[in-house]
Amino acid sequence: MSETPITHFGYRDVPEADKAKLVGEVFTSVARKYDVMNDLMSLGVHRLWKRYFVGTSGVREGDAVLDLAGGTGDIAALLLPKVGAKGRVVVGDINGDMLRVGRDRLLDRGLVRGLDWSQMDAEALPFPDRSFDCVTMAFGLRNVTHKDKALAEIHRVLKIGGRALVLEFSAVKSELLKPLYDFHSFQVLPRIGALVAGDKASYRYLAESIRKHPDQDTLKAMMETAGFARVDVRNLSAGIVAIHRGYRV
User: Fold this and answer.
1) Which of 92, 116, 127, 174 could form a disulfide with 131 if both were Cys (CB 3.0 to 4.6 A apart)?
2) Would strands 6-9 and 229-236 be described as parallel, antiparallel, or unpaired?
3) pTM assigned to the model
């Protein structure tokens, strides 16, 4: 008999088949308080990271953009003015609760035109080859069970010359900052999660998932293996987060 494939869920080892369900439970639990918690956890800096991410994306008027793990709508709202009236942004997320929260928030802001919302799995995207000029993914790749499959799918749906942009937590480069960052991640964040979102365990998982995510060089190599060319890495906030960019050629 073959052994059951195992992967990580934070610091726990779990069957691969169970990870998507476990991650889904986390984000269903935190969906309503997700943005509030992001502000508290990062002291609002996540908004600056996202603005910089989109501002340096190279997205132009008329582009078709797929925003994966985009359920809260933050990245989509920033992309819309860039694609203009002739472009479109497809927001994809595996979690329906996150999509509903994001869609309702953007509807309240009057952002409807040029936006499509769809529940999807990043490992099996429901689009033909060469459908998009750009694919963005902010703070979502670390939750994917098979990151190599997701990267291959992103590469597949990009047009020739299209680019993938991944904004994700990464490996802190400052030795002075590391102990403070660890204390904030494992002592402060779960307590804030318990007080504000009523969910300590989910925020401990989120901290653990960051530590299990590939570092800058490893993710760069994974993107190159998936077929991306001219992959570059840009660290923000001493490597707390990093932007990986690669092109389909």
Assistant:
1) 127
2) unpaired
3) 0.91
